[in-house]
Design brief:
The longest helix has 22 residues. The protein is mainly α. The protein has a two-stranded antiparallel sheet.
Length: about 325
Amino acid sequence: MKISEYPFSKEAVEYVREAGISLESLLESPYHQSVRIRAVERVLGAIGGDIPDGRVSGVSERLAETAELFSYPLARILLSCLGDDLLIRRYAVAEAKLAHNRMQRDKDDILALAADLGFDPRGSEPWKLHFTEYIRAAHRMRSPKWKLVNRDLLDGYLTVTKEELTRIMEEMVRDRVLKGLPLDVGPDTCQKLEEYISPIRSELMAFKGRTRVDLGKVTESAFPPCIKKILEQVAASTNLSHSARFALTSFLLQINMSPEQVTGLFNTSPDFDQERTRYQVEHIAGSSGTKYKPPSCATMATYGNCPGEDDLCRRIRHPLSYYERRIKQTGKN
């Protein structure tokens, strides 16, 4: 396994630890300018959704590998100086996607990285994987195919293809990248990095400005507690459950928000996929011939999406009824 390609791996971390390169050298030495450039590129890439899978131009192969390997811990320092939860989550997702792309390209690295992440695939492709290893990552997958009841479980083992194995490994990479962030970085270190932090901060502010969704004529103050709670989770870049996504999407579409507005609402999610989200929103909006209605209060409670009733909740049975009552009470339309 080429550790510069997977700088979050245990082997890579140990190599960096034993290399004896001081933080001061990484921050100040002209020799490590390429490390600083690549670290900034990693973080800026996370804001945009993808870290470029390339090497710093104009340097030797050896310096390029050094930049790739040491820019990872330096990027974590930059993130910690910024201290933005949204950026940290997007960075973890972006590093995991980069690792997945590299696994797809470099097939020989898959099993070595799998072992590093705590997996023990048996046999040859497609591999056998113990269910306890599988569910550590796959329990977050929302598609039915990832559910354990839909797998060919026999004597504690199930079959995974290369694509499936790399996908669940991607989830574990994201967890590893997130672990320990933000770091406890002193203000002196952050001050030395200010010239590199400043453009990241500016791009992050611009990104948040571009992705802020205007709810238009929708009266947000009239939303029921369940919808307000889900919106708070969206604002905090929380990955919503399928039932919460459906409830929010169908509710907002029913009160005349456009599919474009609703799609844009989800674009701060760490795993946001614009094309997939647009397809799902348009499907709920009726592109297939059926416009789906939001779930009732009872269904919201069943799926754990009811944060608790207020006085009006106790007198109605549906989130839309709540919204309509509040609109009438405030005299807005």
